[in-house]
Amino acid sequence: MPSMPDADALLQAVEKHTNPDRVVDLVARSARVKSYSGDEREIGDFMRERMLELGLEVEKQEVAPNRYNVIGRWRGTGSGPSFMYNGHMDTNPAGQGWSKDPLGGVVEDGHIFGIGVSNMKAANGSYLHAIEVLQACGYRPAGDVVLAYVVGELQGGIGTKKLLASGLKTDYFIVGEPTDLCLLTCHAASFVFRIHVHGKTRHLSKMEEGIDAIAETMRIAGELRALKFSGAPTDESAGLNRINIGVIRGGMTTEYFDWRPQQLADVCTIKCAGRFGYGQTQEGAMADIRALLDRHEARVPGLRTELELFEDNRIFMPAFKVDEQAAPVRAVRDSARQVLGKVPPTGAIAPYKYLGSDAAHLAEAGLTGLVMGPGGKYNTMPDERVSIEDIVAAVKIYALTTARLAGGAFN
Questions:
Q1: How many angstroms separate the CA atoms of 226 and 270, rounded?
Q2: 31, 196, 229, 384 — which has fewest CB within 10 A?
Q3: What's the rounded Cα separation, in Å, for the pair 325 and 196?
Q4: Boundary-marking domain end, from 247, 277, 309
Q5: Among 276, 309, 342, where does a domain finish?
Q6: Could you read off the pLDDT tens digit of each residue along the chain, which spans 411 residues?
Q7: C-alpha–C-alpha distance, residues 15 and 233, integer Å
């Protein structure tokens, strides 16, 4: 079997066999399959059939009742590093404001539209077509190439945790979360917490005697948004700190009665999403929040606050960091340079650095890799979409990277 061609010849072979119409059809069809988190069975069957068409060894791995990871393996000759493409199949629900059918898989104006197409069906389809391209090139990997389509990333990565617990590990990985083809080598940890603020109700005629739980919560909220957690070993890590207050409820009693606005609210609850960097801990972050609340309690006698982690239906997703000179980062960088004519931004790139991803679980288990995928600009918004140009570029980058990392030869 002939050896690996040089870089220019490899790019020519990949470009010759990349079929934009085929990958667009694949991504658009997948976007028409509803796969809200917790209901991934149909999209799993869809991806399973596509992998079987390519002759991959495919298995379904149960994560929870009626929820399955779908794993494809392209066997190598056994003489090279193994390599995984990891992609979650679950999507967010479609919110209001769409002008296109969220489940229509509409192809228009150089984009594919659909809920979850950016996060992350475009990457999942690009992985698959990259394997098809390499097969058409006559490539045979030296190491195994694994396509791991997982459930429950939006629950903190339960599918990937199950994958790793089963013993399935590779030397290298790429997670194709939407980074607009930037090379993300660092991202924040993700956690959710809730704060209950307890005041004292009074009628507005004598509100000076009470403690307005809503007003106090707003003061706390302002400081929360500016809070930097302790323990960051670098400015890069500190730059991953962020808090969003996503839910607020206030009113009378813990039932939040809202029919008597003449009374000061005596309870207000906020639910928040937090981010922190490598070298910092969830325990440390919670202690910093608790210290902030203690300062407010000392400022307002009678004010009482409660802080709790909110872990309902999700697991903790840690921070992620990989050396920018690691083999998979260099391989993707070289491949992107060939395809795009330049090296994309690399490192802890905003806004992607605030995303959680299964890369954190993979790295924690000892695998080496990075996050890089098409989409991102129109992620998590009405008319979510990905440009066809970026999808096709991702296919080529993934194909070249596979050959670089898994080794092998061409017929």
A1: 16
A2: 196
A3: 45
A4: 309
A5: 309
A6: 456 778 899 999 999 999 999 999 999 999 999 999 999 999 999 999 999 999 999 999 999 999 999 999 999 998 899 999 999 999 999 999 999 999 999 999 999 999 999 999 999 999 999 999 999 999 999 999 999 999 999 999 999 999 999 999 999 999 999 999 999 999 999 999 999 999 999 999 999 999 999 999 999 999 999 999 999 999 999 999 999 999 999 999 999 998 999 999 999 999 999 999 999 999 999 999 999 999 999 999 999 999 999 887 788 999 999 999 999 999 999 999 999 999 999 999 999 999 999 999 999 999 999 999 999 999 989 999 999 999 999 999 999 999 999 999 888
A7: 43
Q: How do strand 267-276 and strand 172-175 relate by DSSP bridges?
A: unpaired
Could you tell me which residues come within 8 angstroms of residue 342 by beta carbon, excluding any fewer than 6 positions away? 336
> CATH number for the domain including 212?
3.30.70.360
Our CA angle for 273, 275, 277, nearest 5°, is: 170
> Across the strands, what pairs with 61?
69
Bridge partners (DSSP) listed for residue 321: 186
Cut 0.90: pTM above it: yes
Residues 232 and 262 in one domain: yes
Domain count of the chain? 2
CATH number at residue 108: 3.40.630.10
The Cα–Cα gap between 55 and 175 comes to: 23
Given a contact cutoff of 8 angstroms between Cβ atoms, the answer to whether 380 and 119 are in contact is yes
Of 278, 282, 291, 344, the closest CA to residue 316 belongs to 282
Instruction: Indicate the SS3 state at residue 58.
Output: strand
Are residues 305 and 363 located together in one domain of the fold?
Answer: no
Omega cis (within 30) before 120: yes
Report the alpha-carbon angle 13-393-322, nearest 5.
105
**Residue appearing with tokens 């996503």:** 246
